[in-house]
Amino acid sequence: MxxxxxxxxxxxxxxxxxFIPFGAADNDNDLQKIPAGSLLVEVQPFVVITSKDIxxxxxxxxxxxxxxLQIYKNMEENGVDPxxxxxxLLTHLHKDHAGGVSVKDTLGHYSLAFPNATYYLPxxxxxxxxxxxxxxxxxxxxxxxxxxxxxILLEENGSIDDYITYTLVxxxxxxxxxxxxxxxxxxxxxxxxxxxxxxxxxSRLVAKYDYDGxxxxxxxxxxxxxxIEEGWTFLFYxxxxxxxxxxxxxx
Length: 251
What we know:
By secondary structure, the protein is of the alpha+beta class. The protein has one domain: Metallo-beta-lactamase, Chain A (4-Layer Sandwich), CATH 3.60.15. The chain is 22% helix and 28% strand. It has 8 helices and 19 strands. It has helices spanning 28-31, 70-77, 95-98, 123-132, 139-142, 198-201, 213-230, 247-250; strands spanning 2-5, 10-13, 20-21, 39-42, 46-49, 54-57, 64-65, 68-69, 87-89, 102-104, 110-112, 118-122, 151-154, 157-160, 164-168, 177-183, 186-190, 233-235, 244-246. β15 (164-168) and β16 (177-183) form a beta hairpin. The radius of gyration is 17 Å and the shape is globular.
């Protein structure tokens, strides 16, 4: 399988939940410039190319560059036609993960950003996102997912085409999901915001921004141990320095 990180940049975010571009954050001096009370995060969807599909794992902020979705531009720069995406897997619908679900035209109408793909997402998360709303969720961007024949709403746990498994994990949000893509002897794991950074996998951080920080921490501990034993490749959506980590390569 081929993994393509699609970094949309580095941002600071505070309790207002506004993503402010920060720059490269290449060294410790840069990190000292983070505003007090803010987190430094990268926003980084992934394309995973398998023998069956071109998968998109979460969809980024939905920002545009020169009138084009940034995620389109990033894909094209990596030789991927956005129209060729066959499946979109969504862990949850926070605006930094679901902003690229749809695209708005000049008249303000929304359409699916990846019209040839089937979208997979947690049913209960969709209901919760509409109920909770702004600022964590921007319902206009994902309203098109409701009653759409290109959308499959997932129930707690199961499999997709016998090689992608998913399960309800909660933690970061009440109905957050995680995905495993298994092909031949490879296992790619995507835990979204429950497993957002390599360093968090190795620590006992209980994050205040999580719905249930203790549960997220416990899940990371369990996944890290299992992933090391089974040789998973971990994808990190919010890691500034490490997009993915292959436990198999170090075992």
